[in-house]
Amino acid sequence: MATNITRRKVLQGAAIGTMLATAASGKGALNLNKKPNIIFILADDLGYADLSSYGHPTIKTPYIDKIGNDGVRLLQAYSNSSVCSATRTAIMTGQYQYRLPLGLEEPLAGRNVGLPPSQTTLPSLLKQAGYETTLIGKWHLGAYPNYGPLKSGYDHFYGFRGPALDYYNHGADFWEDDVQINEVGYLTDLLGDRTVELIEKSDSCERPFFASVHFNAPHWPWEAPGIQGQEESARKKAGLAAFDAGTQDVYRQIVERLDFQVGRILQALSDNRISENTIIIFTSDNGGERFSNTWPFSGKKSELLEGGIRIPALIRWPAKIPAGQTSEQVTLSMDWLPTLLEAAETNVNPTYQPDGLSILPVLTGNEQVKSRNVFWRYKGNAQRAARIGNYKYLKILANEFLFNVVDDPLERANLKNRLPDTYKSIRLEWLKWNRGMLPETNESQTYGFTSATFADHIGAQPVTTGANKHDE
User: Fold this and answer.
1) Does residue 157 contact residue 148 with C-beta atoms inside 8 Å?
2) Strands (DSSP E) along 317-416, which ranges?
3) Band of the pLDDT at 245, cuts 50, 70, 90?
4) From residue 103, how far is each of 114, 152, 265, 469 by CA, in Å?
5) What is the pLDDT of residue 219?
6) Contact 97, 151 (CB under 8 A)
7) Which are the contacts of 33, defined by CB distance < 8 A and separation ≥ 6?
8) 468 vs 214: which has the higher pLDDT
9) For 464, phi and psi rounded to 5 degrees?
10) What are phi and psi of 462, to 5 degrees?
11) Of 278, 289, 420, 429, which sits 20 to 30 A from 229 (CA to CA)?
12) pLDDT tens-digit profile of 40-56?
């Protein structure tokens, strides 16, 4: 059985590869007067170097890489947080997540908080601008019935509401709008299928579409496609999270299946002759976890070291963005809201002020890379960080650091004493920024890794989870 699935995948991949050779040529009439369609693909816990175009030595991701080859591959993209729901809050609002109680959750885990239905969001703004809006995949921004995609700007929802889902046994957390459904199949494939269906139906809709495609992959439980029985048995023995299950090869298969579904999405755009005027973005919600490659950085998910927040990000828009570029523009997840609003040429709510920066002028080549100040906070172990220029201020518990993350991406050479003025200046900027955010609370969820979890965390004590009252 496994041999047949592998052979089928190879044949399907070859077919997609052949057809994609001409996919970006945009056959058919191109109507630049129509607002661009938008597909925002979000992977879950994908590390910076988990794509072949970002340096992974064994994982092959030709279709995701093609997005960057046909557009821009961002080399200094950051997530707003080192965990899931906090970053998703920033993507939805275009603001620092710490402006909302939901954004204090690292990640959301059972508390009755969520994205307020009254909150302005990326899909609600695009919906006002005439877009048909759909979320396919993961929500994780508050429990039904108080919160949900249909309350926050999406016209349609197909996916799950919680933090993660078994790839095969989806349980009760699978939804079509607000109705629970029973779906059979590998989760990555189901989400890819629904996205392709949406694209194929776009011809019958006069409105442009915005599709948030939030895959579960490569989040745990680490289950490869096509070997349900064997992998399911191992997973159950280890428990749902399966944190000590899985293998590096299983992880490779999960990421490559994600890549295969991205290839199907690209092909569907080509088949329906809408590639040219469709924006497609691929990125991750935070840095990598157990099996991820975060080289040349150190740190993992739940940490403000570069490996916990540096992410891959690729964007393609053949009608407007020149192909074959890389960019050193520093970006945060919240930048996608103003960037996409500018691309859609809409300003339906001029009173709403995002914290994010539109990077569209940089992507189109109309402006040079912009200098900016960006900030982070993570309650676990009282982590704080700021990046200004090439320098990064980092605080973990009582330890403070200054790194040049361009010259020293592993964050090993602490320049705090060598460059005291730079250290003090960036630290003061962080304190000034932090005063405008909601304070940490003892009630919000947070977590981290210690030496009991990872052997390389030598001497790390249990993670502190209380609100830090000593920032000043």
Assistant:
1) yes
2) 325-331, 373-378, 383-388, 391-396, 399-404
3) confident
4) 9, 15, 31, 18
5) 95
6) no
7) none
8) 214
9) -75, 140
10) -50, 140
11) 289
12) 999 999 999 999 999 99
**Encoded tokens for 202:** 């776009």
Q: Which two tokens stand for residue 81?
A: 């947080």
| Among 379, 369, 350, residue whose Cα is nearest residue 447 | 379
Nearest to 256 by CA among 64, 126, 470: 64
pLDDT at 163: 95
CA distances, 272 to each of 24, 230, 268, 329, 337 (Å): 12, 38, 6, 32, 26
Furthest C-alpha separation in the chain: 64
- 């919906």: which residue's tokens? 127
Torsion angle of the four alpha carbons 297, 300, 302, 303, in this order, in degrees rounded to the nearest 10: -30
Q: What is the pTM of this model?
A: 0.92
Burial class (CB in 10 A: 0-12, 13-18, 19+), 399: exposed
pLDDT band at 236 (very low <50, low <70, confident <90, very high): low
Residue type, 454: F
| DSSP calls for 151-166 | GTT-SEEEEE-SS---
CA angle, 381 as apex, 245 and 373 as ends, to 5°?
Answer: 105
Residue length of the chain: 472
Alpha helices, DSSP H, located in 280-384 = 306-309, 336-343, 360-363
> How many C-beta atoms lie closer than 10 Å to residue 180's C-beta?
11
Whole-number Å distance between alpha carbons of 75 and 67: 14
Contact 78, 318 (CB under 8 A): no
Which of the four pLDDT bands, split at 50, 70 and 90, describes residue 234? low
| Residue of 398, 433, 393 lying closest to 416 (CA atoms) | 393
Under a CB-based contact definition with an 8 Å cutoff, are residues 92 and 152 in contact? Answer: yes
Output the six-digit token pair for 348: 């339906």
- d(C-alpha 148, C-alpha 142), whole Å: 6
Percent of the chain with pLDDT over 90: 80
| Bridge partner residues of 132 (DSSP) | 209
Residue 153 backbone phi and psi in degrees, to 5: 110, -10
Say which residue the tokens 């002020």 belong to: 353
- The conformation of residue 465, written as its DSSP 8-state character, comes to -
Indicate if the pLDDT at residue 16 is higher than 60: no
Q: Going by C-beta distance under 8 Å and a sequence separation of 6 or more, which residues neighbour residue 206? A: none
CA distances to 5, 41, 137, 362, 411 from 250, in Å = 15, 22, 21, 37, 30
Q: What was the pLDDT predicted at 347? A: 84
- On average, the pLDDT of the chain sits at 91
